[in-house]
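Revision sheet: structure tokens.
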Amino acid sequence: MSADQPLPLKFHAAIALEKVLRNEVAHQFVKSGLDVVIKCYLSLMSEFDNDELVDAFQVVMKLFKNDVKPYAVDIYKHMSESYMKCIKS
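Predicted:
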């Protein structure tokens, strides 16, 4: 899900990633780059209002529930910005 990829490709990669992460080897591999994964999801969720994407992010958060503490501020910031957008519209 690199920044130079087209949005539809990043979207489908994000949806597929949560399914791939159920494999323990993939889970451990992604764990080392969790910060990049979270930033990608938050960026995509800022661009797309899509329940499937949010559901995939929730699964990722559950799978890495013991590792997301350092990213809590970024996640909270995204959630509060999304909430403010919702209220304004």
